[in-house]
Amino acid sequence: MPPLLLASTLLLLLAILSSSSPAAGQRDGPATGTSRFREAPLFYNAPSCPAPLPPGPDSACSPDALVHVAMTLDVTYLRGSMAAVLSVLQHTACPQSIFFHFVATSAAGYLSATVAGSFPSLAFQIHPFADEPTVAGLISTSVRAALDRPLNYARSYLPRLIPQCVRRVVYLDSDLVLVDDIAGLASTPIPDGVALAAPEYCNANFTSYFTPTFWANPALSVAFEARRACYFNTGVMVMELGRWRDGGYTERIEEWMDLQKRMRIYELGSLPPFLLVFAGRIAAVEHRWNQHGLGGDNYWGLCRDLHPGPVSLLHWSGKGKPWARLDGGRPCPVDAIWAPYDLLLRTAIPIDDS
């Protein structure tokens, strides 16, 4: 990041912290309504875009939906999700032509009302995560409790949840913001026979994602034979839904999760099953579309700098989330980039339980 830009974002961060940091008890709250979000600005399509989609779920199959975005939605990470949606709309040429698919396990009414309240013109649908009981029975404990929630595995089930009329979807985690037009990511070329595209990182220590038990068993480690298996982060993916269904990839992921319950072959949540099925079999996306790891490691969440190169998407994967660090008065420098997208109202609204 250029020094001038870094200085300006740090000044913005200091102003936010000094004037409007929420007090204890005013941070992300439960579905009782202790947190409220302001209405976002309305962003309009450029003249070259199709007609705007009507708000609500009715236009999921409209040919005017240029980009379909899928995200999970829950109370815990709602603040991050709202910031992510705002960043998508703010930086695309056709904000009124984007359809959002949200997957939720509970509080669907509250979540839908909150999204509609901040984005009155948004075309979106909330999909109940019907496979939650099945997933809960397949999950084994990992290095961080937040990774063990069934909703963290919902990305594997998107082809079952999203209408079959939708050919391609961009999946986004809730702890990121875009600073570029999502249409560029959505239009990633994906060759015939390939169901998934994501930035690959072939210099990462791939073996560390699996246990010695896995690598010592020839019947298991053969899964990567004749594959140039590289690490990729599942928080940003472009998915070809029809090819995914035809390939039975959800079922393949479930098979590895079931094996993990019987003999521990990995430690890190929902990522290793994706690597087992897809590593070396995906289309490459430019690294600028997932500047991940800004939340630090999974234990301490320490500050990290941006990777070298251009940036189109910043991703706070890891334990440290920008809203928590801002609220705690101990932000990292990159958290200043997230702060302008925060829609949280700084005064909690009391709810009458009666």
Q: What is this structure's SSE topology?
A:
Blueprint: H1 3-20, E1 67-72, H2 78-91, E2 98-104, H3 108-118, E3 123-128, H4 132-138, H5 158-161, E4 168-172, E5 176-178, H6 182-186, E6 196-198, E7 200-201, H7 212-216, H8 218-221, E8 231-232, E9 236-240, H9 241-247, H10 249-262, H11 271-278, E10 283-284, E11 313-315, H12 322-327, H13 335-338
Parallel strand pairs: 1-2, 1-4, 2-3, 6-10
Antiparallel strand pairs: 4-9, 5-11, 6-9, 7-8
Describe this structure in words.
Residues 1-25 form the signal peptide. It holds the Pfam family Glyco_transf_8. InterPro entries: Glyco_trans_8 (IPR002495), Glycosyltrans_8_dom-fam (IPR050748), Nucleotide-diphossugar_trans (IPR029044). One of its GO terms (molecular function) is glycosyltransferase activity. This is Hexosyltransferase. It is a single chain. By secondary structure, the chain is α/β, with parallel strands linked by helices. The chain has one domain (58-341): Spore Coat Polysaccharide Biosynthesis Protein SpsA, Chain A, CATH 3.90.550.10. Helices cover 30% and strands 12% of the residues. The protein contains 13 helices and eleven strands. The protein has helices at 3-20, 78-91, 108-118, 132-138, 158-161, 182-186, 212-216, 218-221, 241-247, 249-262, 271-278, 322-327, 335-338; strands at 67-72, 98-104, 123-128, 168-172, 176-178, 196-198, 200-201, 231-232, 236-240, 283-284, 313-315. Strands 3-2-1-4-9-6-10 form a seven-stranded mixed beta sheet. A two-stranded antiparallel ribbon has the order 5-11. Strands 7-8 form a two-stranded antiparallel sheet. Helix 10 packs across helix 11. It is globular. It starts with a helix and ends in a 16-residue tail after the last helix. 40% of the residues are buried. The model is unreliable at 1-33 and 348-354 (pLDDT under 50).
